[in-house]
Amino acid sequence: MIRLDKISAGYNKVEIIKNINISFKEGNITSIIGKNGCGKTTLLRTASNILKPFGGEITIGGKDIKSFKNKELAKKLSFLPQIRTVPNITVYQLVMHGRYPHLGFSRTPKNEDKEIVEKAIEDMRLNKYLDKNLQELSGGQRQKVYIAMVLAQDTDIVFLDEPTTYLDVNHQLEILEIVKELKKMGKTIIMVLHDLNNALTYSDQICLMENGEIVIYDSPQAVYESKEIDRIFKVSSQQVEVGEDEKKQYVFYI
C-alpha cells in the first residue's frame, strides 16, 4: 500500500527522522508511538507528502508519490493534523470541504457529493449539529466533524495526528471506536498516539520510535513483549485482562 524506503526528513535542513524503512499494512490501524521529539509527527507528515523528504523514496501501490498530482493524491490519502484553527463555518460546510478534491473547476457539488457529505455526517451522528457553527461545539464534537470531513474525502489511506489530544476520557474512547469503524470501511489508518495503553489496545501494528529511527514495528503483543517501551519510557508495564470478554489492557508505572 504505502512504503517508505531509506527516508530522511526534517525542517530547515535539520534531520529529524533518518533511515526510515517501513511498509504500512493495508486495511490495518497502525499507531506511531515514542517520547516527545522522537519524530512521530515528522514521520506522519513525510509519509503523507506534506513534508518533502531529504532523501529516500515513498511509494503508494508501487508508484512514486512524487508522480501524483496534488488532486490525484488527495483522492488517495487524507491527513488530519493535531493543531487546527477553528473556522467560522457550519458543520455541513466543513464536511463539504472533504469533497473538494472530487469537484470540478467550479467547485460546485453534485448530488452525489451532497449524498456523500450527508452520509458522513450521519455516520458520525452529527445530524442535529448540521447547521451549527463549528466554534459553538465542544472539542469532542468538533473532532467528530473533522473526521466526518475525512470520511467525505473518501480516501483509502487516513493519517491522524494525535486524534484524541485535549479530549476527556469518554471522548477519547469514542474517537478510537470511530477509528475502528473506519477500518471496517476498508480504510488504512496511520496515526500518532500519545496514550500507550490506547495505542496497544486499538492498533493492529505499532511503530515505536526513538531518536528519529524506528526501534520496532510489529503487533502490539510483540512490541509489548519486547520491553522496548519500558526501556524507552523508563517505566514498567503489565498486561491485564478486563471485562467479561477479558479484553487485554496495559498498565504502565514507575
From TrEMBL:
Pfam families: ABC_tran (PF00005)
Record-linked InterPro entries: AAA+_ATPase, ABC_transporter-like_ATP-bd, P-loop_NTPase, Siderophore_ABC-ATPase
Keyword ATP-binding attributed: yes
Domain of life: Bacteria
GO terms under cellular component: plasma membrane
Keywords: ATP-binding, Cell membrane, Ion transport, Iron, Iron transport, Membrane, Nucleotide-binding, Transport
Native source organism of the sequence: Herbinix luporum
SUPFAM superfamilies, A to Z: P-loop containing nucleoside triphosphate hydrolases
Protein's UniProt name: ABC transporter domain-containing protein
GO molecular function: ATP binding; ATP hydrolysis activity
GO process annotations (BP): iron ion transport
